[in-house]
Amino acid sequence: MSRIGTQPIQIPAGVSVAIDGDNVTVKGKLGELSYQLPPQISIKQEDGQLVVSRASELKRIRGFHGLARTLIANMIGGVDKGYTKQLEIVGVGYKAAINGNHVSLSLGFASAKDYFVPDGVTVTEQGGTKLTVNGIDKQLVGRVAADIRDYYPAEPYKGVGIRYAGEVVRRKEGKTVA
Fold first, then answer.
1. Taking the domains of the chain in order of start, what are their residue ranges?
2. Which of 68, 71, 126, 152 counts the most CB atoms within 10 A of its CB?
3. Which residues share a beta bridge with 164?
4. pLDDT grade, residue 2 (50/70/90)?
């Protein structure tokens, strides 16, 4: 039995859930998200809770059970409170600037790298070296933060690059002359 899939999802005040067959739509103060349930997965709303259940014990269906429950719980959390990822840029002369709907990253390359921010996500910068990615879709916020970080991940010798706030970069010792 799925340990995550069987847990009920609490619906906080100010969030409404509409179930239309296989489509689940969640509305809250920050926006609206929708999700289509996988086959043989069903959902019921009762007493301010959502209960996700499955129709079969096949391995594939058991895998979708916990996944569907987690994605719906993330949707409810997103429209209620939202999600945030913070990035830090470390290095002399390394900085970021927001220009409309794209982020311009100066990372020591010959030209600046531009990242176009998708709809549903906002990126803000503080002091040129800290970026904050906000949005209601947890997957999209994480993907945008990872895409920005992929331009120059923190390297282990000098520690320069883009890293998540609080990420510890394991440093390596450089070559030594004998």
1. 9-80, 83-164
2. 68
3. 87
4. low
148: left (phi over 0), alpha (psi -120 to 50) or beta: alpha
Pair of tokens at residue 42: 């069903």
Q: Is the pTM of this model over 0.85?
A: yes
SS (H, E, C) the chain: CCCCCCCCEECCCCCEEEEECCEEEEEECCEEEEEECCCCEEEEEECCEEEEEECCCCHHHHHHHHHHHHHHHHHHHHHHCCEEEEEEEECCCCEEEEECCEEEEECCCCCCEEEECCCCEEEEEECCCEEEEEECCHHHHHHHHHHHHCCCECCCCCCCEEEECCCCCCCCCCCCCC
**Domain 83-164 class, CATH top level:** alpha beta
Going by CATH, does the domain composed of 9-80 fall within 3.40.50.300?
A: no
- Joined tokens for residue 91: 């290095």
